[in-house]
Amino acid sequence: MSPAERPCVLDGPMGTMLAERGVETPAPLWSAHALEVAPDVVASIHRAYADAGATVHTTATFRTQRRHAGARWRSLVHEAVRLARDAVPATHRVAGSVAPLEDCYEPSRSPGAAAFAEHAELADALAEEGVDLLLCEAFPRVDEALAALAAARRTGLPVWLSFTAGPSAELLTPSAIAQGARRARDLGADVVLVNCTAAALCEPYAQALAAASVPWGIYANVGRPSDGFRDAPDEEGPSRHARLAARWIERGTRVVGGCCGMTPRHVAAVAAVLARS
Prior knowledge:
Elements: E1 8-9, H1 14-20, H2 34-37, H3 39-52, E2 56-58, H4 66-69, H5 73-87, E3 93-98, H6 116-129, E4 133-139, H7 142-153, E5 159-163, H8 174-186, E6 191-198, H9 203-211, E7 216-221, H10 236-251, E8 255-258, H11 264-276
Parallel strand pairs: 1-8, 2-3, 3-4, 4-5, 5-6, 6-7, 7-8
């Protein structure tokens, strides 16, 4: 596989690593809380993913919308982008995270297409801070996902759009995600992905995306939140994830990374697979 054909490696979760390092992630800000109380830890996590082989790094802005962060939302966006940019090599890309306005596992709470204005506010702020692309991620409803995509596209930046089927793959079927992916492609998404679904359940989604004729990617999680998103304590988990990722790479994925429960060890295992391909 030539360098031009090789998929890029997205980083892994911020919240998992904050918890591993003893930093609390309380609602409503979740991992963005660390921007205020532990910025050095946030920076060190970005560096750890870069050292593991990731070349695209996600800002800790999953919950920095005005509705969650209040008056300080804009300063949190600035800090999140600054920390990511300063922590990783200049040749790496920083992806501004734009998340569902409500819980990504409770689609009934989504405002749907009415979310456009709030997504536009965050997307514009991330663009002003100088991110390289916008990652609209973890959407369990197609209508809100497409609203976020339309809002992000206004900035002129590349936009990746990611749907989630939920950890147990119960929220969106492969067919629904494929249909959403084709609509996203037609609206200008540069890559369409699946994230925060258990890696062991992602193969049908990989097949559906590959058949949808869209540039696609996967960054899976390790399982269910009821299990604390725990993986094997040794290298079994990263090795298993690398084997699954190898299948997606064979199918033509353009992006591969990790979500809840993954660590730099998982990212390094995937990067090693790519290095051998």
